[in-house]
């Protein structure tokens, strides 16, 4: 058996939260994750924080990628993090955020438990590498 076959498949949920209707970036990262060998679930548009938490818990994902461009990251992302905590899924889920997040807002998201934030122009290779290196062991 090759090393590649021995490596487990990383399960990812790519989620769009709130009223943000711009999903091109979410589709791009979902495809890149799939092409990298990850199992990918896409939430679809306009999901509430609770919808995303429920999907992450029910699908037992290793990685939750939140795509948000609406500017509501400072309220919606912490709600998702709190929801994961309520299900004791916080420790078992790597949470990354993609979108336009001002530098002044990033520290609050990191303090809430977000592992990394990827803005416009982030390299797909860098994002995939980060996930591979940081996804929780199961």
Structure summarized in a few sentences:
With 138 residues, this protein is of the alpha/beta class.
What does this structure look like?
Its cofactor is adenosylcob(III)alamin. Keywords: Cobalamin, Cobalt, Isomerase, Metal-binding. This is Cobalamin B12-binding domain-containing protein. By secondary structure, the chain is of the alpha/beta class. It has a single domain, classed as Rossmann fold (3-Layer(aba) Sandwich), CATH 3.40.50.280. The protein has 6 helices and 5 strands. Strands 2-1-3-4-5 form a 5-stranded parallel sheet, with helices on both faces. Helix 2 links the parallel strand 1 and strand 2. Helix 3 runs parallel beside helix 4 and helix 4 packs parallel to helix 5. The longest helix has 14 residues. The chain is globular, with a radius of gyration of 14 Å. The N terminus is likely disordered.
Q: What's the order of the H and E elements?
A: HEHEHEHEHEH
Tally the beta strands: 5
Mean pLDDT: 91
The CATH superfamily title: Cobalamin-binding domain
Q: What share of residues are in beta strands?
A: 15-25%
Report strand order across the widest sheet.
2-1-3-4-5
Low-pLDDT runs: 1-5
Number of domains: 1
Cα radius of gyration in angstroms: 14 Å
What is the CATH fold-level name?
Rossmann fold
Kindly state the percentage of residues in helix: 40-55%
Structural class: alpha/beta
CATH architecture: 3-Layer(aba) Sandwich
Large-scale geometry: globular
The CATH top-level class label? Alpha Beta
Main sheet summary: 5 strands, parallel
N-end to C-end Cα span = 20 Å
Pfam families: B12-binding (PF02310)
Cofactor: adenosylcob(III)alamin
Protein name: Cobalamin B12-binding domain-containing protein
Domain B12-binding: 9-138
